[in-house]
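Two records follow; treat each independently.
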Amino acid sequence: MKNNFYLLLTLIALSSTACSDDSLQKEAVEKKPLLIKKEIKKDTSEAKKTSISEYSFEFKNLHDKISTITMKNDIYTFSNVEQPIVMVSLFATWCPPCRGQIPHLANLQKKFKKHFFIIGALVHDDIQKNEFIKFMIAEKALFFISTNKKENLRFAEMITPKLGLKKDFPMPLMILFYKGKYFTHYEGSMPEEMIQSDIEQLLKKIK
């Protein structure tokens, strides 16, 4: 009878160990899919880091003429612009340095019109159309000016961090491009001779 009792205890102990092993195996199987899922999530994150950024901006003047700027991998493509040297000038009509700069920019475009093109872009400005026409005549703004304020601001918000500038950047902000690549920029009013010197430097590359 005593032997039967010990035999029964041994069978119970073996039965308990088997249940514990089954639980461990079951737990291991349940954990395995979680490990696989974690690896897939990591790979997806890495793919996002290598994605290519591309931007497009539509500049439109008072005559509904359009010039689109497309930027991909820091290469800028200007539609309807044949000149290899392009300047984008961000300005406002209420800004005295901006007004003072306009005639000088007009002179430069006239002087180098074969190779140089200016795109003015109004930002942070609520001037009305009729008033702006008067402004252009008074300030001799004889170059393309985009009044598409929403797109102008989008461009400003894209380009200023690339130049290491804050949202409240100094105006006028003039960015010079050569064959679709950034060359230099000017913060605030600049002497006409300084900008002309940079243009002439780029013209030597064309020749």
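The next record belongs to a different protein.
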Amino acid sequence: MVHSRLLSSAALVSCCVYFVSRPAAAGPTIGADHDLGFPLHSRGNSGGGFGIRLGEELKVPALVLTPELGFTYHNFSGDFGPKIYRGILGARLGFGDILRPGAFAHIALAHFVPTVGDNQNAFGFDVGGFLDLTIIPFINVGAHAAYNRVDADYGSGAYAYATVGLHAALVF
């Protein structure tokens, strides 16, 4: 009786381990973003920008985490539109395969170049969401939107702006 319980328990644990734990997959990524930025309660008009990202895509069933390091540039138009260069460090977290919604957040070290006044180095951050299409092997494409902030003093305090855009990433 004890022997059959021991075998039953071992079989149950083996089945749970087999069906629940699967090896995590990982692969390097190179991403590129094309953005349109809109100042929020800040000086300047809308403007274009881009970003590049390097990361490591870590996959477990139905979940993808991508720690990343990157660079972004935005050039706002108008008489008071600044240029913003940012080095970023953060992560993306996506759910599912084929159609992958997710969120991202980064901290940033920024170089803020106003049209009037002195250039400034400042800290910043961004938070946002994305929707990726992952049906093509090794390529993820999608759209994103984010809130961005750079703690440079430009009139009414920190410079805040929203971005929307398209992106693509190669996954090796």
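Discussion point: The radius of gyration is 22 Å. How would you locate this feature using only the token line?
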